[in-house]
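Entry for the shared binder. Reason: the reviewer on the internal report wants the predicted structure included alongside the sequence.
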Amino acid sequence: MIFTPVKKLTPKQLNLAMKLNILTGCLATVWGIVCSPQPLFNVFVINHLGASASTLGLLVALLQLSGLFQLASIFIYGYARRRKPFFIAAHLIHRVLTLAIAAAAFMAAATGNTGWGIRAIMIAVPLSWVFMNASAAGWWSWVADLFPENIRGAFFLKRSSIINVINVIWFFLASMVLDLIKGPYTFWIYGAIFSIGALSGIVDIILNLFIPEPEPTEAAAFNPADAIEPLKNKNFIQFSIAVGLAIFSINLIGPFQSPFIVDPKGVAAPNTWLGIMFVISQLTWVVTAPFWGTIMDKWGRKPVVVLGCFFVLSWTGYFFLNHRTYIYILPLISIAAGLLAPAFWEGVNQMMLSLAPGKNRIAYVAWYMTLVGLVSSGGSLLGGALLDALSEFHVSLLHLSFSGFHVVQLGSMLMVIFSAWIISRVREGREREVGFVIGRVANPGILKTYACLDDLDTACDPGRTEQALRSIEAETGDLALDEIIARLDDPYLEIREEAARALGRIGSSYAVEPLIKRLGDSQTHFQIAVARALGKIQDRRAVGPLIECLTSTTSEALQEACIQALGDIGGEEAAEAVGDFYRHAPNDHLRAAAADAASRLGLFEATSELLPRLIAGKNSSIRRQYAIALGNLFGPPGDFYPFVSGSEGASADRISRLFHQLEWKIRSTNFKLHKTPFTKLSKTKIQNRIDTIREVREHLDAGQDLEALRKITGFAQDLLAEILGEAVESRQFQELAFRIDIHFGSFVWFLEETQKYLAGEAKRSADQGETLRLLTLLIVFFLESNWN
């Protein structure tokens, strides 16, 4: 039977399912941490029962090979009407059989016979995993139907954090007791620990009886051909094999790290240090796992899995590990592993569920686990054989000692990283680029954004929500994109406006359509915030709606926001609208705003009146706005703004740096316009230029603005004459200048207009100090911006 699609659970049922799933997960981890090839189990098998590394490797390989029985689950669940009954029955047998591990410990304690225990474990444990693998696919299909995909990653990683708290407590207590009670009681303690683990695993399965199983809305009959459908999905097969290769590579050395740490011939650390390492790594896991779950839900599973593969880099610490350094290095290894390991181990399962279609999911899960098991099965076997073969290998270098263990580990690390590359080639369908996610995760601001998510999503206090929106930074705001977009419909106007501003800062194209829909909102203040946000995103899909808003509104503030946004976005349609609005602007304020937008678009035709309007400006803000528009023509748009904004002291400091930068450029390079050749100058000529610039600065500082403008205008004219020679005297010089470059042509036009101003109106209006000062700064700005 195909168990899809399914009826959704009610909120009450979903809440119960989540709580029970977390509880059963906690009990399962009590079982798994001691009754499967984990540190305590591996130490028990090798260091106490006396099994060889090859024997442990063989055991792990058998467990992996038992994944073949996943294929049986396709047919078992295919003909079954429900998934839960068979899963519970098979898993109960699986957990009961692991009591053989406790029996091996008790037998060794009572008789001293360890050989019987090794044989019992080698038979019972692989057999138990046969039952587990024959039923596991049903559980994965079951929980995939239980929890919606948009919350699945966050839930499972939150679940993982809670489970690992139990992991920490249980593992640390077990390892501590093993260190406190040694000698003849060691096997009895191991027996008690394994018994607790097995019984917890049994209770875990029983509690699953109370977790609801969603019913299918339609019961599709099972077709045996469905069993091989996943094999036709090359993308899914590539992913499964890549994960199998990664686990194969990890198993080359993973099962043997704990025995190496406590081996008297290795690091010789106490058993308690296994507990300390576990506590540190799992507490780090607890902190980071929910974060990785959120990243998965927001940006896809694949980038997280690829990043997670690099947890093996934490193993670099083993190359510096010995009986003197372990107290420093083991904690560092544990922290580094805990940061990235959940991204891999939790991420691969979530990515598998994303790649497996809802229909026939059991077949996909079964083939995934089968392929992973087959590919990875030889890892521990090969690792154990290599360790045995290299047992006599030792090399000393720079006071460090390297053994066969380190050789195998290096190979393991390189192979895992190679596996990450293969996984990065898999197509998940909705994931962001791996480089994008790495860049965001590496930015410390991501933690601040992550901390704001809860306030954005669930906060009942509008003040907290508004503050969270203000805290969103451009570089990492993508993480909260869905929550911010949802706030565009908040009942509070202030929150809607802050949401629009945040989307503008983030600049994501995903926000364009939601913002366009809100551009027709009845609240003008909100429309202004939306228009400005669209301008910052600079997506041309917004041009048409912005033009419509510009022509339909009577609000001057909204018109200004729309015209500025069009200037930011650019393109022929935007340029035409800006030019038309400039010619028909109803007042000086809107005309200045349109001139600023036109200058950023390089529309000289629409800005030819900038200088006259600057000179005729009735107030300081209008004059400065026209000056900014001229600055956009002379250099990078927006770069002139700092010299005419802010406090008087801050503006003076920026102007001082502008003059110093120009002096430095004059001293170190030669002025050059595009393809015009450099002119070699004498030191005297260079010093004369510097002296002139300093005189201009001194005139400005003394309030002698007219003298400063005359001095810098003459300097600029002489400079052009030196570079271009007789062409400067040509009547067509301005036209030629525009052919060279829009910035150069604009400056030549400006210089000629300024000369006319100096020859006439400036003499009659010498009291207009700000106008003269702005013109001087514009010439200095052009020279500094274009001096190469």
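Summary line for the report: The mean pLDDT is 84.
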